[in-house]
TrEMBL record:
Similarity comment text for this entry: Belongs to the binding-protein-dependent transport system permease family.
Protein name in UniProt: Carbohydrate ABC transporter permease
Membrane disposition: Multi-pass membrane protein
UniProt organism field: Streptomyces rubiginosohelvolus
Domain of life: Bacteria
Keyword Nuclease found: no
Region (Disordered): 1-34
Length: 310
């Protein structure tokens, strides 16, 4: 009967000092060159995305400073004689200052509509998340289904409804549909689940507070980052809204900036003097969005972080 002989492993290699040599370091993500290659690729993609986002704004700035002749004679990013103040003067004087009406309408639609719409969405999301009533799950399922419906598909039903209510070509035909946003309700429910403890609500009820007072004084301050996030989303969506005013309105004094600038742009091929006005008006239309993002960025970023953790 033969015995199996096990060969012992070779002794560890020792250096001149007698210490065991450490194994060579191996990069955890493959060869060292691949890491730098992937980083360069990511930076290249980010650079292309940044250029894609910034170049249209640069073109707006350079083109808004050109006169009618320079706009046609120079290239897109080429600078010419500075004529921004003249373009602004012509912009506000054209058609008896109708552009001022467009600015006022856009601020009313987007500013007031964003705040009221966000308040309604926050209240609905809080109710679905923290109040117990029959049909709560079914109501939230219908709300999620509403997120999947594109706004353009609702334009014709909204027009027929406004026509039956004799609201076509009025301020309310555009303003009232902007107060509802299924996606805002979904975000508000998420924030209410994450930020409003049920124990705090029970304590407020034991103190005799009603549900409406609990929402305004207890739940809404806790949901403020989410509320600001919904306000910002609503503001951007309403400010850029084009199709609903196009369907509902025919009076130029009720137009928002998007629709009014579009109407001028349709005249530009026949009347080239509208080109600087369209470009300058488009540049002014971007400014409120930039201001909104800068002012609300702290609350907006914290709100997005809370939603992502949830």
């Amino acid at each position: 009967m033969s015995a199996t002989v096990t060969t012992p492993p070779p002794p560890a290699t020792r250096g001149t000092s007698g210490r065991r040599r450490a194994a060579p370091d191996v990069p955890p993500y493959g060869p060292r060159g691949s890491r730098w290659t992937s980083r360069a690729a990511v930076h290249g993609v980010l650079l292309l995305a940044a250029l894609y986002s910034v170049l249209p704004l640069v073109w707006l700035v350079t083109s808004a400073t050109k006169s009618v002749g320079d706009f046609s004679a120079t290239s897109a990013f080429e600078l010419a004689d500075f004529n921004l103040w003249g373009n602004l003067r012509d912009l506000f004087a054209r058609e008896d200052g109708v552009f001022l009406h467009w600015i006022r309408n856009s601020l009313l639609y987007a500013g007031v509509g964003a705040v009221l719409g966000a308040l309604i969405c926050t209240a609905c999301g809080y109710a679905v998340a923290r109040l117990d009533f029959p049909g709560r799950r079914a109501l939230f399922a219908v709300t999620l289904a509403g997120v999947l419906v594109p706004p353009t598909a609702l334009a014709l039903p909204l027009y027929l409804l406004a026509s039956n209510l004799h609201l076509v070509n009025t301020f309310w035909a555009v303003f009232l549909p902007l107060l509802s946003n299924p996606f805002g309700v979904y975000l508000a429910r998420t924030f209410a689940d994450a930020a409003v403890p049920g124990e705090v609500l029970e304590a407020a009820r034991l103190d005799g507070a009603g549900e409406f007072r609990i929402f305004l004084t207890v739940a809404l301050p806790m949901m403020m980052p989410g509320f600001v996030t919904i306000v910002l989303f609503q503001f951007v969506s309403i400010w850029n809204n084009f199709f609903l005013p196009l369907v509902m309105l025919t009076d130029p004094e009720l137009f928002p900036m998007t629709l009014g600038i579009y109407q001028w742009n349709t005249r530009a091929p026949q009347f080239p003097d509208y080109n600087p006005l369209v470009i300058t008006g488009s540049l002014l239309a971007v400014v409120p969005l930039i201001i909104a993002f800068v002012v609300l960025q702290r609350q907006w970023r914290s709100g997005l972080a809370a939603g992502s953790v949830k």
